[in-house]
Amino acid sequence: MIRSPGTAGFEGCRAPVASSRLLGAIATSLAIGTLSLCLVVTMTVLSIKATVAMPIP
Questions:
Q1: What average pLDDT does this structure show over 48-56?
Q2: Are 28 and 22 in contact, with CB atoms under 8 Å apart?
Q3: Could you tell me the pTM of the whole model?
Q4: Which UniProt keywords apply (predicted)?
Q5: In what helix (H) or strand (E) does residue 50 lie, and over which residues does it extend?
Q6: pLDDT, tens digit (0-9, with 9 covering 90-100), for 6-40
Q7: For residue 11, with 0-12 CB atoms within 10 Å meaning exposed, 13-18 middle and 19 or more buried, which class applies?
């Protein structure tokens, strides 16, 4: 039995998995999510520092 070339494995035609617009949208959403997470962590650290600096009544 002879196998046809390019019918199995990784030797076949390569089809694009996602469009460039979709990849750009994913990268943008990840960047926005990362920036918002950094902002939340920064605000949390600053508020903890402000709370610790207050005198106890």
A1: 83
A2: no
A3: 0.59
A4: Membrane, Transmembrane, Transmembrane helix
A5: helix 20-53
A6: 555 666 566 667 788 999 999 999 999 999 999 99
A7: exposed
C-alpha neighbours within 13 Å on the C-beta side of residue 34: 6
- DSSP character for 6? T
Overall domain count for the chain: 1
Angle (CA) 26 31 37, round 5°: 125
- Dig out the tokens for 12 from the structure: 């076949």
27/53: higher pLDDT: 27
- d(C-alpha 19, C-alpha 17), whole Å: 7
Domain coverage including residue 27: 20-57
9 located within any domain: no
| Cβ proximity of 6 and 12 under 8 Å | yes
